Amino acid sequence: MLAKPDQANQPKLLVDGLAKSYGTAVALKPTHLAVEAGEFLTLLGPSGSGKTTLLQMVSGLVAPTQGRLFIDGKDETQTPVHKRDIGLVFQHYALFPHLTVAENIGFPLKMRGLSSADIQKQVANALEMVQLGHLAGRFPRELSGGQQQRVALARCFVYKPAIILMDEPLGALDKKLREHMQFEIKDLHRKTGATIIYVTHDQEEALALSDRICLMNHARVEQIGPPHEIYARPRTAFAADFIGISNIFRGRVECGANGAAHLATPSGRLRIDGDNLANDAEMALVVRPEHIELGSDGENEIRGNVAEIVYAGSETRLLVEVAAGERVTVRVLPGKPMPKLGENVTLSWKPEAAVLVTP
Amino acid sequence: MSTTAVSHAVSPAPRRFRFGPLWLAVPGLAFLAVFFLVPVARLMGLSLEDADTGAMTMAHYARIFETDVYFRVLLITFRIAALTTLFSLLFGYPLAYWLARLPEHRRGTMILLVMVPFWTSYLVKSFAWVIVLGRTGVINQIGMGTGLLSEPLELLHNEFGVMVGMVHAMTPLAVLTMLPVMTGIDRRLTQASGTLGATPAKGFWLVYFPLSLPGAAAAGLLTFISSLGFFIVPALLGGRQQTMLAQLIIVQVQEILNWAFAGALAALMLTTALVTCWLYDRVFGLSSLSGEPSDGKSGRKGVLRGLGLAILDALSVACSAVSAGASRVLGQRISARMLGFYCALMFAFLMLPTLVVLPIGFTSSQFLEFPPPGYGLDWFRTYFTSDLWISATIRSFGVAFATAIVATAIGGFAALALARSNSRWRGLIFALFLAPMIVPRIVIAVGLFYLFAQMGLVATDLGLVIGHTVLALPFAFVAIAAVLKSYDWRLDQAAATLGANRFQALRFVTVPLIKSGLTAAFLFAFITSFDELTVAIFVSGGVKTTLPKQMWDDMILQLNPTLAAVSVVVFIVVTTLLLAAERLRRSSQA
């Protein structure tokens, strides 16, 4: 057992066909997922996409309808929640209101039967780690939202669980504090080397924190990969739309005789690249705003009127109406010539900057 | 609250309303001052006066402790009240726990199984236990019939009978008081304790139980205080050895006309109740009575807290071991169902005795036999052809109707006033409106009797309405305050910006939106009055008898099947109104 040759390659967490349904309502379709030790994986998706269900099944709070779950190669599907070596940071922290900060953090250690001297030492270390040493004797309600969040993190990191699960932990904080806490979580991850599975519906948070993002939609995994890959190479229109700003042109493939293919869209006929394109197939072309240029340098060209100018500080976004009801977002950096509202402009992009996805 | 600041800006003459919205509470305050505070204070005063000279004396108090007789009654009263509290909490806690964990819509249904026994008349409940526990009662007949018993058990007219009746009467109150605190406990806290490695037993004792403690303590407080003033159950189910303080007071007032001594006994009861309240407030804070999660007080650091946590630690370890053992012996499935099974038993205990009465109302026998040898409507005929019963019934409906209107109006304005006010008097006024629920009814009733005797209101319908309004006011007040809690006051501001004056805003916006709460308040007040015996015993003066008073007189004299028929009517009226009120209350919260 100890000398198993593939021990090194064994994933920390292996989700093998895990699924959950409540009566006829499917909360999660059979899902496969492997998380490596020390990885920071984010489950990203809109509400109802199944990400929280998956998290709760990993934690043991919800029993799966089918499938199995391995932690360090050991089948833990039937292990009750309190015997599973996982940590869960709740959305609203779930700090025990009748216990002090120190008692809250000491709780998991006490459950594991540590001596009070050990508990004291480790709690002090954990408090140090989240810079709350001076608040050890306070009760949760006497703390600010950010402080409560740090206590929740400390309570989870203190017993070094095999996997740490975080269920939208920053959801209750305001934007500024949220960004600050993102750094703290990233820092904790780096310092402790913990394996973290993080649930959020905030794409910016997912891009900022994760080693890999597991994008979920309609109770299944839509796409999984590193943030830059999901951003640059979305596989579906949903993925492109959910992460970052996208211009999506939907249409039918027209294969030319010379191998050149085009997508017939309401905005015009657009040149596309790709192998094995089936004639007449429904596809969508994704072009990020930063890849569209004003003027006719690119190979793909469309024209339209400037319908809206949105100033966003570091950049300005133009909404160009290229067909009835079809608007394209274009990014204009400061210092570049700015068209006027209603002006007729030409937009273009290089074919390699566009990604062909399933609609 | 910023709402008040804004509404002041809207109001054209802010300076005239320095007392603010609290003006609306004035009718209620005046009413309670005259018909609650004054009579109770006067009664206390009487206990310190020499009946002939009016000089101050402690003689009446000295008399309580002079002879063994009165002192024994005191001890018995405390003993029964304390035991009732203990058992109601023990039996009620798991039931409340189970209810609190149900999904909301199912809890709404199941809670009716506690609400119905809670609102069922004490007279009907006690009558039911007489039928169940009597020498020829249901239990003995079944026992003898099946051969399990060779001779009938003595279940009645002893401490056992009283305790069964008291615990049965008080458990619903305990459950309903604990429940709001328990449902307020965040479910994720128990889940969190699980993910942090606590077994379910440890999670319960270290997390859930301490958080539920303020609710359990509030339940203990209310059951203890209510038990102190009880007389129906001990009178009907107990023997001479179980005479309680309230019975003694009734005898002093009605038979011996010794007001001063009755006052001294009432003062003792009131003092005990207030001291209990004070103790509770010191430890938990009175705010947890209204179902709010514990405020600052419960989290205080100190020896008490350390000791409490240590005890819980020990309990958690013990229970964790026991439950691990139990689930090994019984298997996971059975041990997981134990609680549900227990709750089914409790519901049966709470509901069945009353249901036994129903068929007896239709008996063809001359006796209270169960099951009835045959069925007929004879006893209903007796009831409906008796002038005495019918006039009592009509009076009860009339008095209850008037009481409900007055209590809803007064309570409604008071609740409105307190919801809008942020005055520092708020807490005190709130407490005053709840006080008639805390002060034992017998104390209020005797005090009112003395006052009414001077005002010439004894044996009048008006006297009954006033007395019942004092008792119904807290229920109406709480029902309306609960609806107003979730009421969005910005709607009133919106109405004001749209040109409505205060009265129009109230008339066209607030009242329609809280209508269901008002109706619920009306129905609860109606039931309170319809069921009321204590005030009726004194104030009806034997002439203007109400339905409960007539039942009481009959029960003391001679138990007969007419009582069962009357009980059926009372039970159906009260249950119907209750279900209507509950439905309304719930739809108003949705």
Any key phrases for this structure?
heterodimer; A: 359 residues; Rossmann fold; OB fold (Dihydrolipoamide Acetyltransferase, E2P); 2 domains; six-stranded mixed β-sheet; 8 helices; 20 strands; 23% helix; B: 590 residues; mainly alpha; MetI-like fold; 27 helices; 76% helix; disordered N terminus; NA-bd_OB-fold (chain A)
Report on the structure:
- Chain A is of the alpha+beta class and 359 residues long.
- Chain A has 2 domains: 8-232, 3-Layer(aba) Sandwich (Rossmann fold), CATH 3.40.50.300; 245-357, OB fold (Dihydrolipoamide Acetyltransferase, E2P) (Beta Barrel).
- Chain A contains 8 helices and 20 strands.
- Chain A has helices at residues 51-59, 101-111, 116-129, 145-157, 175-192, 203-209, 227-232, 237-242; strands at residues 13-22, 25-35, 40-44, 66-71, 74-75, 86-89, 163-167, 195-200, 212-217, 220-225, 247-255, 261-265, 268-272, 282-287, 293-294, 300-311, 316-323, 326-332, 344-349, 355-357.
- In chain A, strands 6-7-8-3-9-10 form a 6-stranded mixed β-sheet, sandwiched between helices. Chain A has a 5-stranded antiparallel β-sheet with strand order 13-12-11-14-20.
- In chain A, a hairpin with a 2-residue loop joins strand 17 and strand 18.
- In chain A, helix 3 (116-129) packs across helix 4 (145-157) and helix 4 (145-157) packs parallel to helix 5.
- The longest helix of chain A has 18 residues, at 175-192.
- The model of chain A is unreliable at 1-5 (pLDDT under 50).
- With 590 residues, chain B is mainly α.
- The longest helix of chain B is centred in the first third of the chain and has 34 residues, at 68-101.
- In chain B, helix 2 packs across helix 18 (387-420), helix 2 (26-47) packs across helix 19 and helix 9 crosses helix 11.
- Chain B has a single domain, classed as MetI-like fold (Orthogonal Bundle).
- The interface between A and B is medium-sized, with 27 and 24 residues.
